[in-house]
Amino acid sequence: MPQPTPARQTALELIDFIDASPSPWHAVASTEQRLLAHGFARLEEGERWQLAAGGRYYVTRGGASLIAFVLGSRPLADAGYRLVGAHTDSPGLRLKPRPALAADGLLRLGVEVYGGPILASFTDRDLSLAGRVVLRTAAGPQTKLLRCEQPLLRLPNLAIHMNREVNEQGLKLNKQTELPLVLGQLGEKEDGEVRLRALLAGAAQCEAADILSWEMAAYDVQPGCLWGADQEFIASRQLDNLASCHAAIGALMATEAPAATCVAALFDHEEVGSESAAGASGSFVGDVLARIGLQQGLDGEDSRRAMARSFFISADMAHAYHPNFPAAYEPEHKVLVNGGPVIKTNASQRYATQAETAARFMDCCERAGVPCQQYSHRSDLGCGSTIGPIVAARLGIACVDVGSPMWAMHSARESAGALDQGYMIAALTTAFGT
Known about the structure:
Aminopeptidase i, Domain 2; 2 domains; nine-stranded mixed sheet; alpha/beta; Aminopeptidase
């Protein structure tokens, strides 16, 4: 059936956000634009903070992590925090520091695998480069976002005539020798690194000699879209986990004059374990909450009271049931696209959900008027994890792991339901208001 106009609009806004965010650094820049347009003020970690009652603020770390918050009207020790966490990074291919590989008349770029992508899904797609470069300037090194818009790179498949078992055994790629991406042809005496640096310099509008270093991801240039008989589905890259970032910030922006202090925390490096200064396992969120508490005059006792009265929602995507592969799912936990937010539970604490926190999120969904689903992984399959257990353990805070259902998680092009983004924003907005 045709999708309701508000839900369709929300889905299209998500697609626009992802299209503008081909790297985690771009995702933070896109989020900053949204926050500034809604009256949030930027803070700097290296400066003293002066927070006004009811103020709306954000701060970044490492260029790819961001925490935004709205100060509540009730004392922190009495109301605690309402915290939603997500991550800005997605699995894929990252450029090496010296990637140029020149041989056989071709220039290829060496890449490292970042996280756990479905490597086969990156073959035969129009890829380009996005990330950040650090430039030499008179005032010292300066960081600049870079995005190449046109298709530059490709990972051509080997013809079936040379890989006869590919349909039976699946495509297997050696990460060192078979992943370098084709960039172009080289003249007989042309230098591959010079060619690459000239290309990056053109995109960054700088001199090639001024490029000191870079962090660059290969991304699929195909824009996101709605698809299906009634356009009831979304197709895009990086739904995991930019959809949750978009929902968390959308809910925070929609929260006016909350009783509790509300926080949306977007972290880098979740896909590689979160062990970094800007990751969920680092000090970023603890530092920000501590500084908010200091501004509110909390002592050690009241700081711990605030944490005890807080609630953390870890928002990451969930595995939707795929009817072509029924054996991959727990029989009584088949969550459906367009079926509403999913509560994720794992007895080994790969997800941080507890019975009480699950019930609390169910209540949020009920108040928001959206459906709610529950997911548990098959017991004979390894279960992924999230930032939920990490942040919950670091802060000592009650946590629930949730997410919107999707197909093809970690593919170069993923799919989800057009209704679910609106459902998630509504549930998180309600959670901020409780």
